[in-house]
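User: Hello! My lab partner asked me to get a predicted holo structure for this protein. The small molecule is zinc ion, SMILES included with the sequence. Please write out the structure tokens.
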Amino acid sequence: MSAPDLITTIGMEVHLHLATRTKMFCPCEVRYDAPPNSCVCPVCLGMPGVLPVMNGRAVELAVRMAIGLGCTIPAFAKWDRKHYYYPDLPKNYQISEYDEPLGLGGHLDVELDGETFRVGITRVHLEEDAGKLMHAEDGSNVSVVDLNRTGTPLLEVVSEPDIQSAAQARAYGEALRQLAVYLGVGHCNMQLGQMRFEPNISLKIGDGPDGSGGQPRYTPITEIKNLNSFRSVERACAFEIARHRDEFAADPAGYTLENQGKSTRGWNDDRGVSFLMRSKEEAHDYRYFPEPDLVPFVPAPEWVDKIRADMPETPSQKRYKLVTTYRLSPYEVDVLVSDPDLSDFSEEVLRNAQDSSTAAGLIMTEGLRFVNERDKPISKLFKPGDVAAVSDMIFSGEISRSVAPHVFVQLVETGKSAADIVRDENLAQTSDEGELERVVDEVIRENPGPAQDFAEGKDKAVGRLIGMAKQKTGGKANPNVVREILIRKLRG
Ligand SMILES: [Zn+2]
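Assistant: Hello! Below are the structure tokens for the protein in complex with zinc ion.
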């Protein structure tokens, strides 16, 4: 019997901080730059006798994300206590939503290498983050805790196990981040720990009916905790997929979900390996029970309708618009839609430019160079009208593409308009035939060899001659006009 096919199945749990000013159940500010333990109060410190008060803005953002993922918003959701003991959790329980979350059953369409795949969304729920425990690395065996993060509104998005490769896992994470940023739900800054990923990895053993009539079998599910970059998501998934394959090959009968259950693993990014943390807790280990200090969440239908009506544009809506209206390539669209500021800016440029392809090319090269160098959004560096004007001047032949980098530097440095820069610095291409004829005559006289080659039909020589003409005019000779003159003069 040949070895059965092994099909990768990954479900992802994603946590992200909501973009609220204050915490989930108290008025403490959410800050990432504050001194340790300075943004805390009796509520988030879990003192006896305090009462939590729900942050309405957090609930609104969570519902917005759930709608953006195509989820149903149930008429009733409730808060539960999830119990566990850990030094970064002073209450010894986390307020979460267990069996009745605020969003159910949606999906996210994800683009990867020009193809789209769909990932089902099981649920979206709201909870509070824990604090941060830090262990000294000097061997002193000391740990310290910072509770500023305790109680930060945390959205959890749980997907169906529809992801089929490490690359898809990464693309899904990126698409989810993009959606959250577009919708204004979260800032999702990975360095600040505002977004974290936990893939659940298992391989389906065989595909379709195996002749036994039984349920499909799977390798034991492993959950990788707390990945905080897209790169680590992809690497950790690839590592686990390979590890599952090896374990299964070594013991096809024993390495199954039925035999071994679930386990939780950590990821060592430096060494590029996962390691066993613990066999997985089951829900009953957490002793969930309804939170008695908070009323259930019963959203008014008009309130949900209002959020739906006020939804910002999603990345896929923007993508569709750029493809259909401006005929950009999938690659151009991927780049321009990657960030809401960039995509709004690009749309404004494209609306005003004569040629979409020239305009998109300028944004992607000259524009993004400055975005990366200065670490600023493009809308803070340039005016869309200036970029459209540069694009039009190139498209009409008024300036050469090769002066664009200089014009962009001047746009940032001087704040002058594109038209003023081109005029003041006399950057317009020379198409004046009379002047160019004189220049070409000079070039032919000074370069008899290449001129002779070109006259005899060697096309390669023309580049050299045009280059000389550009040099003589300080880069302003219109190469097409020079080429025409050369052909006329040397080939009759
Ligand atoms: Zn507080």
